[in-house]
Specification:
heterodimer; A: mainly alpha; 14 helices; 64% helix; disordered N terminus; B: alpha+beta; two-stranded antiparallel sheet; 3 helices; 9 strands; 31% strand
């Protein structure tokens, strides 16, 4: 399995908003595109996994090998078949699988034999190391840090929102409206009047555009969270849990 | 103030990393179902015009708010000392930190007067509480 062979909008696009447990089930039955869809989910959340491993490993190279090895192991058809029908959160599933994997690897150190030299995920290791070094989170448990990093990864939904505007050739509009997603904390100090003048629309239109942007971003985020839980009823609970994890870090999470 | 000091969200009061453009907690909460979304109390309503300000020096669970240049935000000045804008990180509410001037240190009568003024100031304050901080003895909450 090589992630680079699959594009998110190719044959696998039907899985793009499917809950992770359904994706996993499809992958177990080797449905076309399903394994790549699962790999795509893993690719989105690779940094929390890397950072978790890196906390245990003194060497970035070992952490990289273990990260590659873990995803390779997880997505092997043999390993997938051994997973019983699952419920719950993708986050919890990945963390539990990772802890089992690391436990298995701790004694035998077989990660090199299991594909440690194979580049499975294209990881930006320098960037990952820079991010990792900037996180003085000594007072928190590894699980809490993992959850907080997971939450930050979710916010990458902003990239999808930008892509949507770009697809409609409205990138400049997006950049003007973006600060209003959180106007209180944003450093950009545009007023509605500024935006109305720049976009050459009325104030009422600006308000509508901002309202739509916020709603759309919230909707993308909610869908992304929904993908990582097995029951739609768990979405709000998951969001609350991720907020709690972020609050616990007191803003000391690296980029 | 170091550039990697956390920022304080002026909406929810949570701290968030300085590299984040927005408060990640508020952003995530926006994705909650309307029925469970918490009511928002904007800190900016009780302490307006604080956009982009950061927390810096901490006195127990109170932090001094500084402006973009790293300077404490001064609210007032008198014979006994200076009042600054602060934040209670436990209660997540804005507070006024009153710092006694050095020349008033040492005398019990000056200390009591300082505390009396801090208490009086708290009665008509727009903030949720006011606190006096004297160097060397930390803070004392009003009655």
């Amino acid at each position: 399995v090589n992630l680079e062979q699959h594009t998110p909008l190719g044959d696998d696009s039907r899985f793009h908003t499917t809950r992770w447990s359904a994706v996993l089930l499809s992958a177990q039955s080797q449905a076309p595109g399903s394994q790549a869809a699962l790999a795509d989910l893993c690719r989105i959340y690779w940094y929390p996994i890397y950072a978790f491993i890196r906390q245990r490993e003194s060497s970035p190279e070992d952490a990289q090998d273990l990260t590659q090895g873990f995803f390779l192991h997880l997505l092997e058809h043999k390993a997938l078949r051994q997973v019983s029908p699952v419920k719950g959160k993708f986050r919890s599933f990945l963390l539990a699988s990772l802890q089992n994997y690391l436990s298995d690897q701790a004694d035998s150190r077989r990660c090199l034999k299991r594909g440690g030299n194979t580049e499975f995920l294209r990881l930006d290791m320098q960037s990952a190391e820079d991010r990792y070094r900037l996180a003085p989170l000594d007072i928190l448990t590894a699980d809490k840090i993992f959850d907080a990093r997971w939450a930050v990864t979710l916010l990458d939904a902003m990239r999808r929102l930008r892509e949507e505007y770009a697809a409609q050739e409205k990138t400049s509009m997006f950049e003007r409206l973006k600060p209003f997603i959180d106007p209180i904390n944003s450093q950009a100090a545009f007023s509605y009047d500024d935006v109305a003048n720049t976009l050459r629309v009325s104030l009422g239109s600006v308000r509508k555009l901002i309202f739509r942007l916020r709603k759309r971003y919230a909707s993308i985020l909610r869908k992304e969270v929904a993908r990582t839980v097995s029951d739609p009823a768990e979405v709000d609970q998951e969001i609350q849990a991720l907020c709690e994890a972020l609050i616990a870090t007191e803003g000391r999470l690296g980029p | 103030v170091k550039s990697d000091d956390p920022c304080t969200c002026l909406v929810c009061g949570a701290q968030f990393p300085p590299f984040e453009e927005f408060c990640p907690i508020c952003i995530l909460r926006e994705a909650l179902d309307e029925r469970v979304k918490p009511a928002r109390t904007f800190l900016k309503d009780v302490a307006p015009n604080r956009r982009g300000r950061r927390l810096s020096r901490r006195f127990e669970h109170y932090e001094l708010i500084t402006d973009q240049d790293g300077k404490p935000v001064e609210l007032g000045r008198g014979a006994m000392g200076v009042t600054y804008e602060g934040f209670d990180v436990d209660l997540r509410c804005p507070v006024t930190l009153k710092v006694i001037s050095e020349q008033c240190l040492g005398g019990e009568s000056a200390r009591l007067r300082f505390l009396r003024e801090a208490r009086t100031g708290g009665e008509d304050s727009a903030f949720q509480c006011r606190l006096g901080i004297a160097p060397g003895e930390n803070r004392e909450a009003p009655d």
